[in-house]
Prior knowledge:
- It is a single chain.
- The chain has helices at about 1-15, 25-40, 45-50, 55-60, 65-80, 85-100, 105-120, 125-140, 145-160, 165-175, 185-200, 205-215, 220-225, 225-240, 245-255.
- By secondary structure, it is an all-alpha fold.
- Helix 1 runs antiparallel to helix 2, helix 5 packs antiparallel against helix 6 (about 85-100) and helix 9 (about 145-160) packs antiparallel against helix 10 (about 165-175).
- The model has no long low-confidence stretch (mean pLDDT about 95).
Amino acid sequence: NGKNIEHAWAVSSEAYGMVDQVDDPWTRTMVAAIHVMAAFFAGRTELAASLAETLPELAALTADPWADAVTRLVRGEVAQFVGDPRDAEVLFSTAAEEFRRVGDLFAYSLCIAEGAEVAETLGDYERAAALLGEGIELARSVGFSEQPIAMRARLGNVETLRGDLDAAERCHRAVLDDPGSAGIPWIQGMAACGMAMVERRRGRLAEARRYLDHAWSLPRSRGVPYMRALVLVARGYLADQCGAADEALELQREALD
């Protein structure tokens, strides 16, 4: 939730403020990378982008391929939302190759998931679906309990964009019905927004509103800037489709704040 994110930001800021007292390049790199992500999730995206620029030099001092891959993954996360998604695509791809080379399949699966999101952003839905399919199986094989569920919700969104609403519904319902997602509000929110998009495209606006009401009721949907914006945008689309143009505009403006 938002309170925990602010706490994480405060702790990472304290650690980052002491990093110059540490002689170990690996530790300095990890503290900086964590601080970038804390800034990003706390909604301080411009600061995150600025801090991310320091990571390549720090990683080079470690002479550690794994540390370099971590910084590429972090820089890709930031570039995906603040910079150029094509830069993010390259960063995720090179990070994935390094993680695979050193045998970290858990981190490799993270890169696959992020690469799929970039492919979706760039309109390459076939590649996005293929990466998500690979990522779901890989995450299961390494015991990553949350990631297969989250990627199933993401695959549902891609299926919607490909025009297969039945496949999209199967993905989202599988997530919403999975006992493993019950205690993970952000995954529930993603799947609920995905089902709302399916129902909007079918013209079933009351059902779409029901799913969005569920998404908005989740604490993380209001406390995490990215999730908050995602749900507000979805509510704006629904309001516009319902003929409430003024409400739709206000929701979209709120999402930008």
